[in-house]
Specification:
6 helices; Rossmann fold; nucleotide-binding; ATP-binding; alpha/beta; 42% helix; 5-stranded parallel β-sheet; 161 residues
């Protein structure tokens, strides 16, 4: 029997309830889901890659078929190394779709054996974006509707430094 492996890539800076929703739902479609935590040179991270790895591992520890690893390469190279046949991506809005559609097309050109699967964000979680969570927190706003209590504490601790 073939093991179905999927990858869910992202910067997860910080991990939001929207990310966790996609992880939990996406993990049902595969035997093993590998969350790939990467740096994104176009973003200014609040957390180091090591801190984000720890955060994601802590928040997904209850999911037996999920692992969390760092990657710093082309997504398709990472997916191939992991033996994945599926890339999982979450969509919140039309703007996400346009970007993700273009990326899926480019990735298909690089390796047409790996499919990209899109999951729509839960309606209640659609407005959540890591960038906005950080901005709200930096201005002293409450972020507990957007992240787990532990992640909210991580963000608060980072802002105190």
């Amino acid at each position: 029997m073939t093991t179905r492996i999927g990858v869910y890539p992202g910067s997860f800076d910080p991990l939001t309830l929207g990310h966790l929703d996609i992880v939990r739902r996406g993990a049902r479609f595969v035997d093993r889901l590998v969350i790939g935590v990467t740096s994104n040179p176009s973003k200014e991270p609040m957390f180091t890659v090591a801190e984000r790895l720890e955060m994601v591992r802590r928040e997904t520890a209850d999911l037996g078929n999920v692992s969390v690893v760092e990657f710093d390469s082309l997504l398709m190279d990472f997916a191939e190394r992991e033996g994945a046949t599926l890339i999982l991506r979450g969509l919140r809005a039309v703007a996400d779709f346009e970007y993700e559609y273009q990326m899926a097309g480019m990735n298909q050109q690089l390796n047409d054996r790996i499919e990209t699967v899109f999951l729509m964000a839960d309606v209640s979680l659609q407005p959540i974006a890591s960038r906005l969570v950080k901005e709200i927190a930096r201005y002293g706003g409450a972020i507990d509707k957007f992240v787990t209590p532990a992640v909210a504490a991580d963000v608060a601790a980072k802002l105190v430094r």
